[in-house]
Fold:
Amino acid sequence: DETRVLRLLDDNGGQLRQSKVVEGTEWSKSKVSRVLSRMADEGTVAKINLGRENLIARPESVPEHARSPFDES
Structure:
């Protein structure tokens, strides 16, 4: 499952809205949420809240303005 998500991210410049992950995988919203939460906990992806939606990104693809000032660069 994680490999499929990472492939989708790689095919889309390292970041993608969570709804596009649902479309790209054809999984349920709940499955995508579970997989992405596990990946975020492991540090494989970053979940960035954009109002009512999440931006999913490879850690190296997180936009500068979305980074924590406490993150090491």
The first strand starts at residue 15 and ends at 17.
